[in-house]
Design goal:
6-stranded antiparallel β-sheet; 7 helices; 45% helix; elongated
Length: 188
């Protein structure tokens, strides 16, 4: 499910799951909740028992300018690979091609600063870490680091166990695609 579809599903199911429609939550949180978006999210979760996704959808709508629409995946990706990091876009495109080849249920879901790789659940991520390197994070529990496949350390969302630094499209080779496939298949 793409981020836009996930957001729509959360909003669509809000009344059935919480007893209040989106407009009611926005009114309540705007009237009684804390001042900042982050505080509102925590308040909605702690005081009203909402899930993180539900709380984020409500808090985001309180603070957004009227008529603002969330950015599309392509807009988020474009923003990640402009300016000093524009030269990294061909590496990203090579990875995106490899991800599409994994199967119809492999998805690349753009976030503000990275792209999450998902098959039911996250199996990896792509981030333009420096001006000269993209890091591919992979969830490969039980796999020993070797060569370019390094421990993730503090990189990633806590879901990734390994990291591969990529400085050119040619580095997205059979070895990297093999690791990508292993992480994807482990989420099947």
């Amino acid at each position: 499910m793409r981020p836009e579809e996930m957001s729509a599903a959360i909003v669509r199911n809000l009344a059935a799951k919480t007893g209040r429609a989106l407009d009611e939550w926005i009114d309540l949180a705007g009237r009684e909740g804390p001042a900042t978006r982050r505080q509102r999210v925590e308040w909605l979760k702690a005081v009203h028992g909402l899930g993180h996704g539900q709380a984020e959808q409500i808090a985001w709508r309180i603070d957004r300018p009227p008529g603002e629409v969330p950015p599309t995946d392509e807009q988020l990706i474009e923003a990640q690979y402009t300016g000093p990091k524009a030269s990294l876009r061909p590496i990203y495109e090579r990875l995106a091609e490899a991800i599409r080849a994994l199967g119809p249920d492999a998805a690349a879901e753009a976030r503000q600063t990275y792209v999450s790789l998902v098959r039911r659940r996250q199996f990896g991520l792509i981030a333009a870490s420096t001006r000269t390197r993209i890091d591919l994070g992979l969830r490969l529990p039980g796999v020993a680091p070797v060569g370019r496949l390094q421990p993730a350390g503090s990189f990633g969302s806590g879901q990734v166990t390994h990291r591969v630094g990529l400085g050119s499209p040619g580095e997205v080779d059979a070895e990297v695609v093999g690791w990508l496939r292993a992480a994807y298949e482990a989420r099947g």
